[in-house]
Amino acid sequence: MKDDDIYRNEDGSEPFRFNEKVARVFPDMLRRSIPGYAASIEGIGSLAARFVRAGTTCYDLGCSLGAATIAMRHGIREPCCRVVAIDSSPAMIERCRELIREDDELNGPETEVDVAQHDVREVQISNASMVVMNYTLQFIDPGDRDALIRRIFAGLNEGGLLVLSEKVVDEDDHMESLLVDLHHEHKRRNHYSALEIARKRAALENVLVPESVAAHRERLQKAGFSHAAVWLRYFNFVSIIAIR
Ligand code: GEK
After folding, report:
1. Which portions of the chain are predicted below pLDDT 70?
2. By C-alpha distance, which of 65, 66, 75 is closest to 43?
3. Residue 124 belongs to domain spanning
4. Is any ligand 1 atom within 6 A of the Cβ of residue 87?
5. If you measure from the C-alpha of residue 139 to the centroid of ligand 1, how many angstroms do you get, rounded to a whole number?
6. pLDDT score recorded for residue 88
7. Cα separation of 135 and 216, whole Å?
8. What is the CATH number of the domain that holds 125?
9. Total of domains in the chain
């Protein structure tokens, strides 16, 4: 695995993109940048074991290199399921296909995986028992988020599960600056310099647009989800489960 040294060399004036350079260092980037990322992936495996039904489809929307796809695939206990892994970045999709092929050869679990390059806003969702958006909605234009969550709801079977992980903002300004500071300290502990942190922050401005937990819960409720709860939180990184 290659170390993430992107903002040692780039000054952050260009908006952040999921290009080849990012795909190459991505596992290291997420491990060092998202507090609780490993726990989110582990939880997705356990949730797949509990929620995925025989003969249904699971979706990993914004799959990047397929970490959540592989966790679902290994968690599923039922026969005749399929995981559809979607990302709009060609560099991510290319590497994701390689990793899924390796997983096919190493473990050969029964569940089939289809990896496809698409915009998640255009993907047809149907007969789903589980949909995962692990830190993806935050990159979607806020004006398109309601419609996407409504489409996911419509494609889920009764009792189906959405896992929605996001960076969030706190409505209390004091707590928001504390949580941002704790996150930056976490990154410094993971060997990013203050300059790298500041540059990445500038590059993500208007690219990653976080919302509050309350705004996410309201959107889920409006879309029709009957139950929603935060099941994981580490500083300003949250994962919510919602059941149709
Ligand atoms: C993981 N879920 O490892 N359509 C499709 N994909 C998109 C779109 C879009 N409109 N916008 C952004 N993406 C992964 C991590 S990363 C999170 C997800 C992060 C994709 C983008 O190309 C990238 O691969 C992913 O969403 C977000 O569990 O980097 O913080």
Report:
1. 1, 107-109
2. 75
3. 37-161+207-243
4. yes
5. 7
6. 98
7. 13
8. 3.40.50.150
9. 1
Inside any domain, residue 4: no
Is 64 within a domain?
A: yes
In a domain, 21, yes or no: no
* Count of CA atoms in the C-beta half-sphere (13 A) of 8: 8
Distance from the CA of 173 to the center of ligand 1, in angstroms?
A: 28
Q: Is the pTM of this model over 0.85?
A: yes
pLDDT reported for residue 109: 67
Nearest CA to ligand 1 atom 17: 135
Structural element, H or E, at residue 94: helix 90-106
Q: Which amino acid is at 235?
A: F
Give the ligand 1 atom nearest the CA of 167: 30
* CB of 137 sitting under 6 A from ligand 1: no
The structure tokens listed for 143 are: 């004006």
Model confidence over 84-138: pLDDT tens digits?
999 999 999 999 999 999 999 886 668 999 999 999 999 999 999 999 999 999 9
Nearest atom (ligand 1) to Cα of 132: 2
Q: Is the CB of 133 under 6 A from ligand 1?
A: no
